[in-house]
């Protein structure tokens, strides 16, 4: 009976589809919503497929017009030597550039010369277009792709981006390797397709293509997901173990029907411009989205409970593309409408790429004014009578934070691995040490608290020494099963905690001969670890 219960719970975990998130991007009026259609658990990592709709997207992806997924991420080489990564296929774009400035004028001239071979242009029109492309990197890339103009980027070249935190993109003989600040890496082939994703622990997901379409994905723990396709290149079914499959139906390139692995059914309606206008659920409720038919900005969202949120947009008539705002109105707790305002100012870099220079919000009567540098990182936040300033190093890592409230943080980094080496703030000083693999091995503050960490060959913590003073210390040892899950936690001179798992990697039983005393000691040790390891004040909030 217990086995059947655990089996049922595991199947629910495998088959349930998760409604991830939905909302409106107030900067560009984009409506977005995500669904997770299949989850394969086990080994401490979940292999899953999540698709996201963006109303501002004009891409037709695996799941139809406007829909994208993480595994659709691809890259393109632009005419100016920059490389553009299309996140989730139809999502945001991350632009990587070399340390030296790109020659925007030369790239624009090359594009226009290619255009002349196919389109009649007067000399004045050509000159005007060169100037226009030279001052707008996104438009320049669009024209470059439309006319097949690419720069030659040699293997060994390294490009950089701060659009989504500090990242590096290395050009290799096999393709491209993107490195994130958290140790995650993405690998692309020479065609720009994603072929592998890996994290610093050694876990990875690899991609197998067949006839240009993704045939399967497989992770380093042997979990696998398979795909079947319609002839027009859109996903038909997705499945893993067992005979249950997801199912997708389309009409005029729009996804109109989806059934996830848990047999949850959603039906989608669109307007004539492919904008998602309604989502119908099995309980007969509906989510409705309205759009401005000229700009395609979202004007209203009515949720399944009937609550309506309205969006109004305005702009500076002198600089409509560079200074604009959104007012969001929705019912308050008393039923009366409440309006909040979000204002944006955009600036251009010397290479023509654009960034958000300022965001001014007024929420519930409180104004917050944030100024950003051209690395897209905040340099000043003003709220009420107080101002917080930020400074960064060349890698885009925070080095100083100070506030008129009197609090401050100074941060130093290890030169080799770019991880935090020292933090000084109002509460004192904390120092950090790492092994050659970048694993934290020691953290100590000036209040006498120290934590030592020892790792096994797989990068798992095998021992932790928690020391609050010369005479007070706790030693914890960890043992893991083949899936990398802890099965035994032993505290020196206190006792052990044994953890048992079912066949699906979920905790089945926790036992300790030392009872609550052992659990309390382990909890305190981990709390002490978190207190030291998480540098207080290292965030971008006021």
Query: How helix-rich are the residues, as a percent range?
Result: 10-25%
Q: How many whole angstroms does the radius of gyration measure?
A: 27 Å
The main β sheet shows up as: 33 strands, antiparallel
| Number of self-contained structural domains | 4
Form type? globular
Q: Extract low-pLDDT stretches.
A: 1-16, 536-542
Task: For the record, give the distance between the C-alpha atoms at the N and C termini, rounded to a whole number.
Answer: 53 Å
Task: Estimate what percentage of residues fall within beta strands.
Answer: over 45%
Mean pLDDT: 88
Classify the secondary structure makeup into a structural class. Answer: mainly beta
Beta strand count: 42
Our count of helices gives: 5
Could you describe the 3D structure shown?
- The protein has about 550 residues and is mainly β.
- The strands form four sheets. It has a 33-stranded antiparallel β-sheet, with helices on one face.
- Helix 2 (about 105-115) runs antiparallel to helix 3 and helix 2 runs parallel beside helix 4.
- The chain folds into four domains: about 1-100 and about 160-295, no CATH class; about 100-155, no CATH class; about 305-375; about 415-535, no CATH class.
- It has five helices and 42 strands.
- The longest helix is centred in the last third of the chain and has 19 residues, at about 515-535.
- A hairpin with a 5-residue loop joins strand 31 and strand 32 (about 400-405).
- About 15% of the residues lie in helices and about 50% in strands.
- Mean pLDDT is about 90; it is low at about 1-15 and about 535-540.
- InterPro entries: DUF6531, T6SS_VgrG/RHS.
- Keywords: Signal.
- This is DUF6531 domain-containing protein.
């Amino acid at each position: 009976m217990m086995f059947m219960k655990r089996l049922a719970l595991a199947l629910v975990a495998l088959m349930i589809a998760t409604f991830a998130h939905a909302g409106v991007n107030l900067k560009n009026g984009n409506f977005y919503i995500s669904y997770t259609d299949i989850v394969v658990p086990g080994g401490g990592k979940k292999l899953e497929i999540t698709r996201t709709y963006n109303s501002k997207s004009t891409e037709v992806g695996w799941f139809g017009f406007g829909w994208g997924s993480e595994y659709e991420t691809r890259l393109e080489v632009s005419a100016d030597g920059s490389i553009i990564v299309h996140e989730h296929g139809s999502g945001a774009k991350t632009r990587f550039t070399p340390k030296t400035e790109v020659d925007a004028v030369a790239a624009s001239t090359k594009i226009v010369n290619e255009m002349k071979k196919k389109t009649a242009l007067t000399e004045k029109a050509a000159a005007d277009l060169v100037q226009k492309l030279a001052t707008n990197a996104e438009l320049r890339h669009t024209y470059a792709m439309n006319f097949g103009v690419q720069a030659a980027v040699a293997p060994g070249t390294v490009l950089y981006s701060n659009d989504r935190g500090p990242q590096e993109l290395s050009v290799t003989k096999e393709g491209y390797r993107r490195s994130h600040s958290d140790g995650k890496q993405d690998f692309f082939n020479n065609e720009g397709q994603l072929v592998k994703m890996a994290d610093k622990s050694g876990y990875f997901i690899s991609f197998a293509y067949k006839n240009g379409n993704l045939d399967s994905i497989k992770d380093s723990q042997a979990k696998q997901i398979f795909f079947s396709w319609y002839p027009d290149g859109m996903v038909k079914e997705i499945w893993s173990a067992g005979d249950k499959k997801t199912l997708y139906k389309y009409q005029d390139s729009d996804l109109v029907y989806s059934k996830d692995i848990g047999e949850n059914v959603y039906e989608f309606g669109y307007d004539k411009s492919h904008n998602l206008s309604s989502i119908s659920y099995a309980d007969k409720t509906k989510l409705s989205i309205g759009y401005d038919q000229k700009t395609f900005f979202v004007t209203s969202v009515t949720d399944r409970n009937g609550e309506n949120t309205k969006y109004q947009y305005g702009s500076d008539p002198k600089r409509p593309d560079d200074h604009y705002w959104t007012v969001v109105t929705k019912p308050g707790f008393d039923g009366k409408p409440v309006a909040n305002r979000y204002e944006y100012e955009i600036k251009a870099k010397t290479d023509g790429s654009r960034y958000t220079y300022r965001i001014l919000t007024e929420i519930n009567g409180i104004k917050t004014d944030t100024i950003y540098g051209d690395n897209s990182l905040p340099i000043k936040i003003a709220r009420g009578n107080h101002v917080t300033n930020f400074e960064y190093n060349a890698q885009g890592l925070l080095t100083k934070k100070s506030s008129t409230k009197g609090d401050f943080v100074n941060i130093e980094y290890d030169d080799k691995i770019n991880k935090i080496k020292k933090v000084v703030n109002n509460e004192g000083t904390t120092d950090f040490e790492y092994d050659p693999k970048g694993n934290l091995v020691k953290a100590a503050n000036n209040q006498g608290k120290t934590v030592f960490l020892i790792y096994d060959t797989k990068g798992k913590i095998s021992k932790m020494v928690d020391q609050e003073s010369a005479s007070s210390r706790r030693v914890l040892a960890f043992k893991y099963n083949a899936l990398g899950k802890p099965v035994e936690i032993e505290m020196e001179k206190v006792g052990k905690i044994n953890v048992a798992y079912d066949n699906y990697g979920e905790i089945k039983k926790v036992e300790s001969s030392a009872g609550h005393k052992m659990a309390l000691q382990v909890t305190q040790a981990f709390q002490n670890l978190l207190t030291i390891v998480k540098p207080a004040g290292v965030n971008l909030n006021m």
